[in-house]
Amino acid sequence: MAPIPETTITSSDGPRPIPLIGLGTATVERSDVVKTAVLEAIKVGYRHFDTAAFYGTEKPVGEAIAEALSSGLIKSRCEVFITTKLWCNSTERELVLPALKHSLRNLGLDYVDLYLVHWPLKINQKHLKVPVPKECVTAIDIKSVWEAMEECQNLGLTKSIGVSNFSTDKIQEILSFAKIPPAVNQVEMNPLWQQKQLNKFCKENHILLTAYSPLASAGNSWGNNSVIGCDVLEDIAKSREKTTAQVHPFPLLNLAVYHI
């Protein structure tokens, strides 16, 4: 695998490199499968790994990083870029810092490179049930939550902070009071769902737009075959003797996270 190109992300240490392609770990696979997948990804050149409290994959990701360090696959923690996310049951000011500390314990790390607010809402459930009943979903006080996210960065527990699944209006609200602007907005985006308005807004405000499921998560229960089965992309791929994934128009994406 050729070296993965990088861009930069704003952080407490100034501009820091972030690989343009990451391995996402939202999956229904067993934890040992996740650990093996991350280790294999490291062997072939991946250095950016995306997890979340909600995924339940923080521990196997952390175990894989620890094993990669002990075996010499990587020489230091700073060689990998780790993202995790604040789940919706903790989107209250007093719950943010404990949630990040819990994620760090799961990962076995002193800090993450990027911490995201997973969704701009609050879920009031002791035990998650899907679909979530409407009465269990409430709005969040984004100002107080964001202030707590800023505290996490100021404490050095995360190098950068950002959001996920946020619209232009919700980001604009954060920008109106933030002392530390969001470094990233991670959203679903692919060639058939290009999020052009949001992309333009994020570029104008120096926010890195990260695409999750850039191949529409074909093969997963929550995904579909719309991108891989796209006739236009298939024709382009055949003319170049490549697969559809290989001719994926990556330039339209600032950064992409491909899930296991």
UniProtKB/TrEMBL annotation:
<dbReference type="Pfam" id="PF00248">
    <property type="entry name" value="Aldo_ket_red"/>
</dbReference>
<dbReference type="InterPro" id="IPR018170">
    <property type="entry name" value="Aldo/ket_reductase_CS"/>
</dbReference>
<dbReference type="GO" id="GO:0016491">
    <property type="term" value="F:oxidoreductase activity"/>
</dbReference>
<dbReference type="InterPro" id="IPR036812">
    <property type="entry name" value="NAD(P)_OxRdtase_dom_sf"/>
</dbReference>
<dbReference type="InterPro" id="IPR020471">
    <property type="entry name" value="AKR"/>
</dbReference>
<feature type="domain" description="NADP-dependent oxidoreductase">
    <location>
        <begin position="21"/>
        <end position="217"/>
    </location>
</feature>
<feature type="binding site">
    <location>
        <position position="118"/>
    </location>
    <ligand>
        <name>substrate</name>
    </ligand>
</feature>
<protein>
    <submittedName>
        <fullName>D-galacturonate reductase</fullName>
    </submittedName>
</protein>
<feature type="site" description="Lowers pKa of active site Tyr">
    <location>
        <position position="85"/>
    </location>
</feature>
<dbReference type="InterPro" id="IPR023210">
    <property type="entry name" value="NADP_OxRdtase_dom"/>
</dbReference>
<feature type="active site" description="Proton donor">
    <location>
        <position position="55"/>
    </location>
</feature>
